[in-house]
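Researcher: I'd like a candidate sequence for this fold, 165 residues long. If you have to choose between options at a position, lean toward the conservative one.
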């Protein structure tokens, strides 16, 4: 009797649409709201910014070019790998909105919509710390990256797989 009822429920779900097949959307989880960067996870400590990076509020630096995306983002469909440069001993916060996840650090962390960056200690007198990571998106887009530091806020448009206007 239970098997018959379960079969009836399954069949009624399949016959509800005009094609006879019920849609089976796969829910995409939202990124965790806030993650804190692990200062010890930096992979390099340069004294100066390399070419191709743009400084934002003297707190972080991001690549100043269109980021390439590849299939296989584990949050959303696409991933754009890019390093994040963090000024030593400077607190800041990075925030994205919508169906975008951000993650930086040299260990598995959840995707976030906000990354809190503590005042990480300098390594060997270097002014900057480098963290691997990037953006996870559903489709190529211009991502507004909101940077906050020292009571100021600046939005940097990040061209993730497409140019920004």
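Model: Candidate sequence:
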């Amino acid at each position: 009797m239970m098997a018959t009822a379960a079969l009836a429920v399954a069949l009624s779900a399949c016959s509800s649409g005009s094609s006879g097949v019920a849609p089976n959307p796969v829910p995409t989880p939202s990124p965790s709201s806030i993650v804190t960067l692990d200062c010890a996870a930096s992979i390099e400590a340069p004294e100066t910014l390399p070419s191709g990076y743009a400084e934002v509020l003297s707190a972080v630096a991001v690549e100043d070019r269109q980021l390439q995306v590849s299939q296989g983002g584990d949050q959303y469909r696409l991933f754009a790998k890019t390093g994040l440069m963090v000024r030593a001993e400077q607190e800041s916060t990075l925030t994205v909105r919508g169906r975008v996840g951000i993650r930086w650090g040299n260990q598995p962390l959840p995707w976030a919509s906000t990354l809190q960056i503590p005042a990480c200690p300098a390594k060997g007198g270097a002014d900057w710390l480098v963290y691997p990571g990037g953006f996870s998106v559903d489709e190529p887009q211009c991502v507004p990256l909101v940077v906050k530091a020292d009571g100021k806020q600046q939005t940097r448009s990040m061209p993730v797989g497409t140019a920004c206007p």
